[in-house]
């Protein structure tokens, strides 16, 4: 999933997200920092939301069914992965990928997973802390190999 794909998806579903939370166009525009006119243009498909608006929507409405359907249980992880391709730091604890994640490899305390909706990759440790995220499968597999070797020494 690319930045442009995320922008397109969120722009297409903006009306549905707004309706799901029960906001008027005026209220939604105020919350996400748009003019009502711009919000209407996005909802009608005449323009796309910009990246900042998309990030705001994903953050503020991450628990809505619509956003969950688009990105899985952790929409901000998808956004962060796209924004910072190839992060490699221990992040907050995850649920281990029981619902939205398909395990690809497991070795020496690390698990390489792929999100079934966004198709991005992540590596979690044995305590389910996210270590790494990327959209690039080859790079993710390489990083998994490196991490699992380090942990074996």
List the domain count as a whole number. Answer: 2
The backbone outline, from C-alpha atoms, is: elongated
> What percentage of the residues does DSSP assign to strands (E)?
15-25%
Radius of gyration of CA atoms, rounded to a whole number? 17 Å
Quantity of strands, as a count: 5
User: Which spans of ≥5 residues are poorly predicted at pLDDT below 50?
Assistant: none
According to CATH, what is the class of the largest domain?
A: Mainly Alpha
For the termini, the CA-CA separation is: 35 Å
Number of helices: 7
Overview of the structural elements:
- There is one protein chain.
- With 153 residues, the chain is α+β, with helices and mostly antiparallel strands.
- The model has no long low-confidence stretch (mean pLDDT 87).
- It has 2 domains: 3-71, 434 Repressor (Amino-terminal Domain) (Orthogonal Bundle); 86-152, no CATH class.
- It contains 7 helices and 5 strands.
């Amino acid at each position: 999933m690319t930045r442009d794909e995320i922008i397109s998806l969120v722009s297409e579903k903006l009306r549905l997200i707004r309706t799901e939370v029960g906001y008027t166009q005026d209220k939604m525009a105020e919350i996400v920092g748009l003019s009502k006119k711009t919000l209407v243009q996005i909802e009608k498909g005449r323009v796309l939301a910009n990246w900042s608006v998309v990030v705001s929507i994903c953050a503020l409405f991450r628990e809505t069914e619509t956003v969950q359907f688009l990105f899985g249980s952790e929409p901000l992880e998808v956004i962060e992965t796209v924004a910072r391709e190839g992060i490699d730091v221990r992040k907050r604890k995850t649920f281990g990928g029981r619902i939205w994640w398909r395990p690809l490899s497991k070795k020496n305390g690390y698990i390489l997973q792929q999100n079934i909706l966004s198709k991005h990759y992540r590596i979690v440790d044995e305590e389910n802390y996210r270590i790494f995220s990327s959209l690039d499968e080859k790079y993710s597999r390489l990083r998994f190999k490196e991490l699992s070797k380090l942990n074996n020494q």
